[in-house]
Hints:
Pfam families: HTH_18, Response_reg. GO terms for molecular function: DNA-binding transcription factor activity; sequence-specific DNA binding. It comes from Paenibacillus nasutitermitis. One of its GO terms (cellular component) is cytoplasm. By secondary structure, this protein is of the alpha/beta class. It folds into 4 domains: about 130 residues, Rossmann fold, CATH 3.40.50.2300; about 160 residues, Reverse transcriptase/Diguanylate cyclase domain (Alpha-Beta Plaits, 2-Layer Sandwich); about 110 residues, no CATH class; about 100 residues, Orthogonal Bundle (Arc Repressor Mutant, subunit A). It contains 22 helices and 10 strands. Helix 11 links the parallel strand 9 and strand 10.
Amino acid sequence: MPIKVMLVDDEIIVRIGMKSAIDWEGNGFRYAGEAGDGVEALALLDRINPDILLTDIKMPNMNGIELIKEVKRKRPEIRIIVLSSHDEFDYVRSAMKLGADDYILKASVDPDKLIHLLRETASRIEPASESASANPKEDGHTSSPRETLEDLLCRCMEGEIRLEDMNRQALLESFSRHRAYIALARVTEDETTQTAFVPPAAAATLGHVLELNAQKWVRTTLARSSEREVVLVLWLKDEISAERLREIGKDLASAAGRFTGIAVDIGFSGGCESPGKLAEGYNEAAQALETSFFGTGEHVYIHAEQGLNNSSLGVSLISRQDEKELVLAVEQLDEEAIRHKIDGILANVKIARPPIAQAIQACLDLFYTLQTAFRKLGIPEERQAEGEQPAYSEIIGFTRIRLAEQWFEHYVAQNVHRVRSASRERGREEILALVTYMKDHYSERMTLKQAAARTMMSEGYLSFLFKKETGTGLIEFLNGLRIDKAAELLRNTHLPSYAIAEKVGYDNFNYFGRIFKKVKGMSPKRYRANFIIGSTTSIPSE
């Protein structure tokens, strides 16, 4: 049976384009329906019954984030792919936290990429269905709420707690003598595959391992285990110290590695004294985990100890001076200076510890600065290989600052190599052509800016390449041509020095005299006296 796909987007041109541009049936899918916003999508959900939902983020009436939340509450088996713009990465991260499987940037959508992503997402549908059939709901109806403590806790953490839930015996008993601490374990991203999820079977095993090991320390409830995270609730009668939580967390992370081979990072919330505080507790644990972005080397993060610096909100993490110095280093093709500048910028990001979205924005700003500077050196945008993400998509997906460091190191090395390879092919020809032009037009006014425009290079790169090929700077080379011609005229004509200065391109006679003496070691008058036509007399004193 084909996999049913539903599209939700408020732009009709997008819906028409996607529906008509893709061979759905030929690739094992069926375009089952569409909606213009989240409200319309929810109304059609049960009738269309999609396997995969493709949804935009920004829509009227109900946006994509609200839609994902509702779909995951009502129909958690539906897989979700987010359509986003390049400036919506903070929304994308929210969508992923709510359970979206993946995302694709609208600007980079083409049929092959979308089909590839749909196939990857579809590959996760069958195992999830098998798991659901192996563990049917207690009352036989998938939409009915279950009475287990685990489900009550999940609803509380998702902010979906109902009035009747507050009076359920399971919750009342748990909170009557205890406070709850949320332990949120997330799979550490594999730096090779850049994935941060595990198959459903492995996720279930991981959840049980963490629950059993936590039980050694304190009464524990496994609230949820998924491909991306495991949520435990630790029940304690008294407040617990950060040191004790860290000890528990290290034991859990160690057990996950030993028994499942899965690396996890664990975030702990503060104590929750009532069911209504669990949503806040989950957010605290998630916020604690976010600090892992800055690469402390730890695997355990305590909300009471961690914190992001919101004082940097609205403040650019890359100064204009940083940008100028970085662009100059690129123009000079100084790879060491480029890397040093990038390392300094990323080090400042780590020190500032801004909200993750702002740190990602700084990485995007850094990328766009580098990309623009490299393009000015004549390097075209590199074509993506099939199945390869565009650069900005990779950056949005950074989960660690060290991934940013590694990515930029590779990006710089790759582009410096491309520039140098291209310069070997065309640089010599461009410089030789410029030298020929200068020899023919030495008397005309020429600045570095004009020469750069003629060669279609940046001023910095032209200076670097010209000196590399000729051994001297461009203006110094031009002065050499002019002075050599002036010396020839001084030797072979009776033109006065001021006329010769004008003839070779100098409006200011005094400036001509200084340059001539710098190049030839003597004034024009003394030079001419030494080479009077037909004379072999020695240089007279002036």
